[in-house]
Amino acid sequence: MSPIKLAIVGVGKIVRDQHLPSIANNPDFELIATASRHGTVDGVPAFTTIEAMLDAVPAIDAVSLCMPPQYRYEAAYKALSAGKHVFLEKPPGATLSEVADLENLAKAKGVSLFASWHSRYAPAVEAAKTFLANTNIQSAHVIWKEDVRHWHPNQEWIWQAGGLGVFDPGINALSIVTHILPPLFLTGATLEFPENRDSPIAADLHFKSGAGLPVHAEFDWRQTGKQSWDIVAETDAGQMVLIEGGSKLSVNGELKFSAPEAEYPSLYRRFAEIVKADVSDVDVSPLRHVADAFMLGKRKFVDAFYD
Amino acid sequence: MSPIKLAIVGVGKIVRDQHLPSIANNPDFELIATASRHGTVDGVPAFTTIEAMLDAVPAIDAVSLCMPPQYRYEAAYKALSAGKHVFLEKPPGATLSEVADLENLAKAKGVSLFASWHSRYAPAVEAAKTFLANTNIQSAHVIWKEDVRHWHPNQEWIWQAGGLGVFDPGINALSIVTHILPPLFLTGATLEFPENRDSPIAADLHFKSGAGLPVHAEFDWRQTGKQSWDIVAETDAGQMVLIEGGSKLSVNGELKFSAPEAEYPSLYRRFAEIVKADVSDVDVSPLRHVADAFMLGKRKFVDAFYD
């Protein structure tokens, strides 16, 4: 099979840092075009709109959409309508309804849609899933606390309505939780909104499973000093901790698994796999939990936030 | 086939007004038990909890769950786990995730789950669907404005987080919209919260379809005087209005269809149908739009509301 001829839409930091090296090192893909208002990639034909790109380069087989979620639907609709496979950066859309619509469109067009969740491909996630599948889980605690000023300096879109606020990193935790724990649903939530912003800066979430497993998640964007991206499970086989966003796994304080980070290379391997198998991979459960939290959550107002 | 032996959980106003007469007039059902903290039905064995009822009356084939949505999951989980068919009043749950979970459980147990949307069975809804399917729709406008003091006097739960506020009636409009219009998704929303309440009193919603059809919805709970539950569509065949919550259909001001209201009798006919056919009927799209509106919507604070 010749390489999948790929185009990227929305050339920004995540594309330079992650997508480009992963594509360059994967023989299943050949980058043949980009569309972006400002960004370009050396040696690759560049367009400023997806329409212009799709018109000018009919050889494109697939597109990766990497712009902010508020603008993703329209590009995905155009690409799928033109019969292209689509890779969606996380989250797959600004609403659940548009993702459902894209899923139907991909099916109708006979192309693959990939709603990617990069944190699910963190090195120790599968080891955690295997560990938890072989024991009885008593409870779980998710702690996702980071410094927004460090990770998202002056990114206005994350604070706009629909920008998700602290759920932008929190959805990474939820993408792991929905992969390694049984199905959960929210029973209560508190969202803290800075009085000058339309998105929450912190969230406290209580979930349980049908069988009653309690899961507590804390997301906070005001964490200075040590950053925390940990999932702790109390089990009959001891305390399991999935550390640093899924990088390492420890049980009862002992390191059990660690491997180099390779999330985006894994995502592109998965994308090639579903394109070849002629299927889609769209699990909306992390975004569904976020929507549920906004619907069910109690709003609390806290100090204004300035970058 | 002998009648489906039915139990009702949560005996309140909607049960007395709608469920009981519909069940009494439908030979497919026989009401054999109720569970409710306070309410009972004359001549029917009454229990105070669903657990006690399921234990005491193993002959129950199906249960209708009519308590507020915040308490519905647990009862549905118990009923489905016990192998009973389940009828969920609208909305089917407090979160989308719990509804997805119940749908999987019903499938695993080989029983039918019915997420009922009573407004979809309003008399003129099918006539509107047929009219719209045979013309080109240019735009649509949904006006759902009622007086909360009249319709929900002193109902505290509707104002709590998760109680949905003005989306409690608004979801009825959305259940019709998602049945008669092409798939839509939200592009922008403003939710107005009374400063002393956790749920919105008004919502302004802009949707569009993949093909670009614009749909505007206005929900307001502060309407005194004339109440409005109308869906207006501008089409190539003229202006269609679905009036009074789906009761009547007019085109260019001329009444085209009108019939007596029979929503709940239709719901129970549908429930019997899916139980006999051994399938479920769970369309979450109305609740998904509500969750999307909470996730995407801009919050605005308005005057405190007192009953």
Can you tell me about this structure?
Two copies of one chain form a homodimer. Chain A has about 300 residues and is an alpha/beta fold. Chain A folds into two domains: about 5-115, 3-Layer(aba) Sandwich (Rossmann fold); about 120-260 and about 290-300, Dihydrodipicolinate Reductase, domain 2, CATH 3.30.360. Chain A has nine helices and 15 strands. In chain A, the strands form two sheets. In chain A, strands 14-13-12-11-7-10-9-8-15 form a nine-stranded mixed sheet. In chain A, helix 7 packs across helix 9. The model of chain A has no long low-confidence stretch (mean pLDDT about 95). The interface of A and B includes residues 186 and 298 of A.
Summarize the helices and strands and which ones pair or pack:
Two copies of one chain form a homodimer.
Chain A: E1 4-9, H1 13-24, E2 29-35, E3 46-47, H2 50-56, E4 62-65, H3 72-81, E5 85-88, H4 96-109, E6 113-115, H5 125-133, E7 137-145, H6 148-151, H7 167-180, E8 184-194, E9 202-209, E10 214-220, E11 228-235, E12 238-243, E13 248-251, E14 254-258, H8 263-277, H9 285-296, E15 298-302
Parallel strand pairs in A: 1-2, 1-4, 2-3, 4-5, 5-6, 7-10, 8-15
Antiparallel strand pairs in A: 7-11, 8-9, 9-10, 11-12, 12-13, 13-14
InterPro entries (chains A, B): Gfo/Idh/MocA-like_OxRdtase_N (IPR000683), Gfo/Idh/MocA_oxidrdct_glycsds (IPR050463), NAD(P)-bd_dom_sf (IPR036291)
Pfam family, one (chains A, B): GFO_IDH_MocA
Domain Gfo/Idh/MocA-like oxidoreductase N-terminal (chains A, B): 4-114
